[in-house]
Amino acid sequence: MMNLRRAMSVSERLWFWAQPLLAALALLAGAAAWFLQFTGNLSALPTVQSLITGQFVLPGLALSLLINQVTVSLRRPPMLTVGEKLLLIVQLAVVAAILAISPSAELLFMGFLLWPLLIAVATTAFATMASTTIRSRRPLALDESDGMLSEPTAQSR
Questions:
Q1: Containing domain of residue 24, as a range?
Q2: Is the pTM higher than 0.85?
Q3: pLDDT tens digits for 64-82?
Q4: Where are the alpha helices (H) located in the chain, listed in sequence order?
Q5: Are 54 and 45 in contact (CB under 8 A)?
């Protein structure tokens, strides 16, 4: 029988651990924003946009990344596909843009454009990771004609 599992390379492990690391950073920044508001020290959050980003966008990002991590962890081996890596990079680029404009009160309109974009990219990333995980967990069927492993068809189920 062919061994269907393969070892993860160092770069694949780095990609795998990128999501929980980024989630921890986003959660820490979100907790700091909540703490600053509760203590009344809003000097570090000078605009409404930075307040919304810190209190809602970053904790939401952390939750999204953690859910994605759990989803990918159900795979064997738990590796991200190229498309999922690209979606993660786009997600991080949108977050970087949001963080860059958050201190500026004049760029609040850009925040209103970027927040839904981040939600759309995060949702797409989850849908992609969930569908890839579901497909990866389907049992492979042995094609008797040539002895090759293949996805089971509706007739073979």
A1: 13-137
A2: no
A3: 999 999 999 999 889 999 9
A4: 10-39, 48-52, 58-73, 82-101, 108-137
A5: yes
Provide the token pair at 104: 């500026």
Residue 144 lies in a domain: no
CB under 8 A, 24+ apart: contacts of 115-119 = 115/52, 115/57, 118/57, 118/61, 118/91, 118/94, 119/60
Phi, psi of 135 (to 5 degrees): -65, -35
pLDDT of 153 > 80? The answer is: no
Residue 99's nearest CA partner among 82, 86, 111 is: 111
Q: Based on the structure, what is the number of domains in the chain?
A: 1
Tell whether 34 is covered by a domain: yes
Residue 150 CB partners (closer than 8 Å, separation 6+):
140, 141, 143
User: Does residue 28 sit within a domain?
Assistant: yes
